[in-house]
Automatic annotation (TrEMBL):
It holds the Pfam family ABC_tran. Its main location: membrane. It comes from Amycolatopsis minnesotensis. This is Amino acid ABC transporter ATP-binding protein. SMART domains: AAA (SM00382). GO terms for molecular function: ATP binding. InterPro entries: AAA+_ATPase, ABC_ATPase_HisP-typ, ABC_transporter-like_ATP-bd, ABC_transporter-like_CS, MetN_ABC_transporter-like, P-loop_NTPase.
Length: 248
């Protein structure tokens, strides 16, 4: 078995996605296309539907209507477990198993989902930990690591599954400022390697330098979409102009 990280990316397309919670319409017809190997950053105010949109991509949230396509093929009715094997997700709060070692955190899904034996799972896990500079942390519990290190473990765990798409939901928002850069650099490296990334972020510097496209969400819709230069330097809508004046 090879321990090289493989990159096999898929394109993602969301078509006219609607999600409501009771009477609250959270996504009101969202279309988004992310070509294979590209990075889209999703920005926008709190409550605008960014997390819900991301969760639709691996169907943690099932849309009320609309379609989801991977490599041009609808997966909206496909087996959700099979879909989730193609998608890695990294959350604000890491979501590591606190009572297991760093190594176990990565080997457990490899064993249960990918059905690797113990030795093979450990070989992959150690290789992915080495990729994020944390091979020496394998025996520790997550609590013994800094927030930035825990987030890098979470990224290593997702990458160990060889996803075709990675979703990041405010992956650096819970980190102390001095730990943010290490995680952003790692994410930039994945973009460079050609993994398809959808990144919800408040890090406008990252969006500007790494994103191929930036989507600005407000009240359940993508109200502006374009290159980082267009979105940041020539915002068209008053809502985006106001948002940028608050965050830049
Ligand atoms: P964002 O990530 O942009 O802050 P979210 O997608 O988390 O926005 O939430 C959008 C809106 O949907 C918010 O008003 C939020 O309170 C609501 N919401 C999100 N998830 C649920 C849920 N499971 N049940 C009810 N309301 C929800
Ligand atoms: Mg959110």
């Amino acid at each position: 078995m090879t321990t090289e990280a493989k990159t096999q990316s898929a394109s993602v397309e969301l078509r006219d996605i609607h999600v409501s919670f009771g009477t609250l319409e959270v996504l009101r017809g969202v279309d988004l296309t992310v070509p294979r190997g590209e990075t889209v950053c999703v920005i926008g105010p709190s409550g605008s539907g960014k997390s819900t949109l991301l969760r639709c991509v691996n169907r943690l949230q099932e849309p009320d209507s609309g379609d989801l396509l991977f490599d041009g093929e609808s997966v909206i009715k496909a087996d959700p477990d099979r879909l989730r094997q193609r998608v890695g997700m990294v959350f604000q709060h890491f979501n590591l198993f606190g009572h297991r070692s760093v190594l176990d955190n990565i080997t457990l899904p490899l064993r249960s989902v990918k059905r690797l034996d113990k030795a093979a799972a450990e070989e992959v896990a150690l290789a992915r930990l080495a990729d994020v500079g944390l091979a020496d942390k394998a025996p520790y519990r997550p609590a013994a690591l800094s927030g930035g290190q825990q987030q890098r473990v979470a990224i290593a765990r997702a990458l160990a599954m060889e996803p075709e798409v990675m979703l990041f939901d405010e992956a650096t928002s819970a980190l102390d400022p001095e730990l943010v850069k290490g995680v952003l650099d790692l994410m930039a490296g994945l973009a460079e390697r050609g993994l398809t990334l959808i990144v919800v972020t408040h890090e406008m510097g990252f969006a500007r330098s790494v994103a191929d496209k930036v989507a600005f969400m407000d009240r359940g819709k993508i109200v502006e979409y374009g290159t980082p230069d267009a979105v940041f330097d020539k915002p068209q809508s008053p809502r985006l102009q106001q948002f940028l004046s608050q965050v830049l």
